[in-house]
Structures are given as C-alpha cells and as structure tokens.
Amino acid sequence: MSKTADTDFSYASFETTGPRALTKAQPFAHPQSLLDLPPGEARKSLLAVHDILSDRLGSKTELAIYEAGGGSTSFLPLDILHRAHVTVVDIDEDQIRNNGYAHEKILGDIQTYRFKPGSFDLIICYNVIEHLPDTESALLCFCQSLKQDGLVLIGAPNPKSLSGVVTKYTPHWFHVWYYRYVRGDKNAGKPGEAPFPTFFHPLVTLSNLEAFASAHGLEVIYRKEYESPRFPEMRTRKPMLARLLDTAAAVMNFLLPGKTDVRHGDYHLILRKR
Questions:
Q1: Please, which residues have CB within 8 angstroms of residue 43's CB and are 6 or more apart in sequence?
Q2: pLDDT tens-digit map of 170-198
Q3: Domain of 31?
Q4: CATH code (residue 57)
Q5: Which of 21, 63, 73, 213 could bridge to 84 as Cys pair (CB 3.0-4.6 Å)?
Q6: Ranges assigned E (strand) in 127-161
Q7: Which of 112, 57, 88, 12 is nearest to 270 (CA)?
Q8: R_g over Cα of the chain
Q9: What does the pLDDT look like over 11-35, one tens digit per residue?
Q10: SS (H, E, C) 182-241
Q11: Domain Methyltransferase type: where (predicted)?
C-alpha cells in the first residue's frame, strides 16, 4: 500500500557532537565514501559526479534531498550535504538506525513511499535499485517528487559485467563469503550490513534506464560506466586471484563483440527533470 508524506522541510544544521557529528565542510573536502575508494575509474567518476552536483546546485542555499535507501554512508559532496535537509527512506530498520547524517529518517519502502509532488532538488539512489523487485515503481515515485530542474543521481552495478553476472547467478551466501574473506569485511551479512539480496530488475541496465528517463521527462546529463572498484581492491588484497580474473576478463573482452569491457561493473547516471 502506497503512502504519501508531507515532509517538514525546516533546515536544521548538523550536530557537531554525538553520534551524528560531522566535520564542518572545508573546500575540497570529500566524504569518507570517496576516500575509501581505491585509485581508479570509480573514484574519478564519483569526483566528476561531485563536480556536476556542486555546479548545478551551487547557487541554492537551501536544498531538499531525498536519499532513497540510506545507511551509514553518504556519497554526496560535503558542500552540498552540509547545507541540505536530508530525508532518508529505507525498509531496513538497522540501516535507518545506522544513518547519522539525515535530518529525517523514515522506515518505509521506496517502491511505494510517496512525497508531495515537487518536493526535492536532488534524489540519490546509490547501490539500491539492484535490490528492488519493482524498480519501475520506485523510479515513478522519484519522478513525481522531484522539483522542476531537479536532479536524480543513480549509482548501481552493471548486470552485464563480469561481477554483475556472478552476482546475479550465484547464491546470497556466496556474496557474504566474498565480502568476508576476499574483501575482508568481518561484518558482512550481519543485520544492516551488506551484501543484501539482489534482484537486477530489467530497468537496472543503463540502456533501459535511459529509455525510461526519456519517456518520463528526464534528460541524461552524466553517464559513465567504469571499472568496478573490486578489481583494484583485489589487486592489492589478493594479487594472484586478481591476475586470474584480469586474464579471464581480457579473454572475454576479446571474444565479445563491440567495445565491451566486462570489468565495467558499475555506473553513475545523473538525470535532470525537464
């Protein structure tokens, strides 16, 4: 059952002490999510995303941001995060509890949760749409709640990449094993911690997302497929396994038609509401 929310967009400052404390944004400061990325294409693309968001939203002193699915990590540039009213909706109670930067935290389903039309300057859905069984419903909710000239940032895995195919066709326990023993994340699989079950709705592919955007009054202003950060991470943590996967990827790229690169495991997409 869908819900409609009439959000209070009073703009509160960030706490400077306690669990929600955030360091005051300084010029060229970056969020921890970016600093945690290994050098490579993923970091470069996220920096480009930050430049676009700062440029497009820089003239607005009060920003309303909706984060569709949000845990403890923000992927937004700090100059935007620190002057915005951030509303987070997530179906996972642990994720809501772990979020320390949102001003309003709502336990709900982003596939059905609705806000007043024209409520937000920016909607961010990062590493979330691949986990939704009904991605289209979530995107339609985004379109409705976005202001004119507002932006949608989507970060997601590419289901046609090597990592995407492995994720799609392997059981969830294997994903937990990979996170724990290859990536070294001891908390993987615990309540509120990645990895989460993945559905890969057809709209998760870039081409289908672009077609959806065109049909619903959105234009693409940034589109980038990039090498999954898992590859440079693995080259550091598990070099022998990384060489094996790099060799397999090179063979697959040679055999596949066109300019396909199966290492391009993730993408960024920024849409503007016309």
A1: 34, 37, 229
A2: 999 999 998 898 888 889 888 878 888 89
A3: 3-159+197-234+263-273
A4: 3.40.50.150
A5: 63
A6: 146-157
A7: 57
A8: 19
A9: 333 332 333 334 444 444 677 788 7
A10: CCCCCCCCCCCCCCCCCCCCHHHCHHHHHHHHHHCCEEEEEEEEECCCHHHHHHHHCHHH
A11: 70-154
